[in-house]
């Protein structure tokens, strides 16, 4: 049972519901192949039916952890930090990213953009979802747009989202893992016809690493 005092600390971003943290190789998008320390924050109500980390949705099952402890473990492994979820922007990221910045870290976020952008970011990977669209403020700030392709209708959604980001934003189409064999030929064909897009693969799954 979380006390009112702990809840207040979580609401203020001094503590966060930490699902897991690990040092691995970034498997997706622009920084694929790069060693990085991942901080996975619990809590997400976007509710993608194909989500592969549904255990992250309920923040109450993940222990509220002081950001000082999170930062100490992170910087012991890497100066490249990826904050993901769940949906990390469910929570105020200001204090966590400020503490990481004070340690000289390069900080990335993977987000649906469904909530207000808080924190200091060196790289924003925006992965929008149809059922809960991003806030308008995040589109021009995104460094990469990563749209998950589960069915044919997602290509239209991808183009709609691409119209909202800056011209310098890198555009990626990534097959949803369970449907990759069916969708990959369609993605390849689409990218060849629309070369502003690139293919993103979940290479960590092929490598069998976290």
UniProtKB/TrEMBL annotation:
<keyword id="KW-0456">Lyase</keyword>
<dbReference type="Pfam" id="PF04055">
    <property type="entry name" value="Radical_SAM"/>
</dbReference>
<keyword id="KW-0460">Magnesium</keyword>
<feature type="binding site">
    <location>
        <position position="51"/>
    </location>
    <ligand>
        <name>[4Fe-4S] cluster</name>
    </ligand>
</feature>
<comment type="pathway">
    <text>Purine metabolism; 7-cyano-7-deazaguanine biosynthesis.</text>
</comment>
<keyword id="KW-0004">4Fe-4S</keyword>
<comment type="subunit">
    <text>Homodimer.</text>
</comment>
<keyword id="KW-0671">Queuosine biosynthesis</keyword>
<feature type="binding site">
    <location>
        <position position="86"/>
    </location>
    <ligand>
        <name>S-adenosyl-L-methionine</name>
    </ligand>
</feature>
<dbReference type="InterPro" id="IPR024924">
    <property type="entry name" value="7-CO-7-deazaguanine_synth-like"/>
</dbReference>
<feature type="binding site">
    <location>
        <begin position="25"/>
        <end position="27"/>
    </location>
    <ligand>
        <name>substrate</name>
    </ligand>
</feature>
<keyword id="KW-0949">S-adenosyl-L-methionine</keyword>
<dbReference type="InterPro" id="IPR007197">
    <property type="entry name" value="rSAM"/>
</dbReference>
<comment type="similarity">
    <text>Belongs to the radical SAM superfamily. 7-carboxy-7-deazaguanine synthase family.</text>
</comment>
<feature type="binding site">
    <location>
        <begin position="127"/>
        <end position="129"/>
    </location>
    <ligand>
        <name>S-adenosyl-L-methionine</name>
    </ligand>
</feature>
<comment type="function">
    <text>Catalyzes the complex heterocyclic radical-mediated conversion of 6-carboxy-5,6,7,8-tetrahydropterin (CPH4) to 7-carboxy-7-deazaguanine (CDG), a step common to the biosynthetic pathways of all 7-deazapurine-containing compounds.</text>
</comment>
<feature type="binding site">
    <location>
        <position position="84"/>
    </location>
    <ligand>
        <name>substrate</name>
    </ligand>
</feature>
<feature type="binding site">
    <location>
        <begin position="50"/>
        <end position="52"/>
    </location>
    <ligand>
        <name>S-adenosyl-L-methionine</name>
    </ligand>
</feature>
<dbReference type="GO" id="GO:0051539">
    <property type="term" value="F:4 iron, 4 sulfur cluster binding"/>
</dbReference>
<dbReference type="InterPro" id="IPR058240">
    <property type="entry name" value="rSAM_sf"/>
</dbReference>
<feature type="binding site">
    <location>
        <position position="210"/>
    </location>
    <ligand>
        <name>substrate</name>
    </ligand>
</feature>
<dbReference type="GO" id="GO:0000287">
    <property type="term" value="F:magnesium ion binding"/>
</dbReference>
<feature type="binding site">
    <location>
        <position position="40"/>
    </location>
    <ligand>
        <name>substrate</name>
    </ligand>
</feature>
<feature type="binding site">
    <location>
        <position position="44"/>
    </location>
    <ligand>
        <name>[4Fe-4S] cluster</name>
    </ligand>
</feature>
<feature type="binding site">
    <location>
        <position position="48"/>
    </location>
    <ligand>
        <name>[4Fe-4S] cluster</name>
    </ligand>
</feature>
<dbReference type="GO" id="GO:1904047">
    <property type="term" value="F:S-adenosyl-L-methionine binding"/>
</dbReference>
<feature type="domain" description="Radical SAM core">
    <location>
        <begin position="31"/>
        <end position="210"/>
    </location>
</feature>
<dbReference type="GO" id="GO:0008616">
    <property type="term" value="P:tRNA queuosine(34) biosynthetic process"/>
</dbReference>
<keyword id="KW-0479">Metal-binding</keyword>
<keyword id="KW-0411">Iron-sulfur</keyword>
<keyword id="KW-0408">Iron</keyword>
<dbReference type="InterPro" id="IPR013785">
    <property type="entry name" value="Aldolase_TIM"/>
</dbReference>
<dbReference type="GO" id="GO:0016840">
    <property type="term" value="F:carbon-nitrogen lyase activity"/>
</dbReference>
<protein>
    <recommendedName>
        <fullName>7-carboxy-7-deazaguanine synthase</fullName>
        <ecNumber>4.3.99.3</ecNumber>
    </recommendedName>
</protein>
């Amino acid at each position: 049972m979380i006390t009112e005092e702990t809840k207040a600390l979580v609401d203020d971003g001094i503590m966060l519901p930490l699902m897991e943290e690990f040092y691995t190789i970034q498997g997706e998008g622009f920084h694929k192949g790069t060693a990085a320390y991942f901080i996975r924050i619990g809590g997400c109500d976007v509710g993608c039916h194909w989500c592969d980390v549904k255990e992250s949705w309920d923040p109450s099952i993940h222990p509220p952890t002081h950001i000082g402890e999170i930062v100490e473990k992170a910087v012991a492994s890497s100066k490249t930090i990826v904050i993901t979820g769940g949906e990390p922007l469910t929570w105020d990221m200001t204090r966590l990213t400020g503490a990481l910045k004070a340690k000289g870290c390069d900080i990335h976020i993977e987000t649906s953009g469904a909530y207000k952008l808080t924190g200091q970011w060196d790289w924003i990977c925006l992965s929008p979802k149809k059922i809960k669209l991003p806030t308008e403020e995040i589109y021009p700030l995104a460094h990469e747009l990563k749209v998950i392709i589960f069915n044919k209708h997602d290509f239209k959604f991808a183009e709609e989202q691409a119209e909202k980001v800056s011209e310098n934003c890198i555009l990626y189409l990534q097959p949803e893992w369970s449907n990759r064999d069916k969708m990959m030929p369609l993605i390849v064909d689409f990218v060849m016809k629309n070369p502003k897009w690139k293919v993103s693969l979940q290479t960590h799954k092929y490598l069998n690493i976290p």
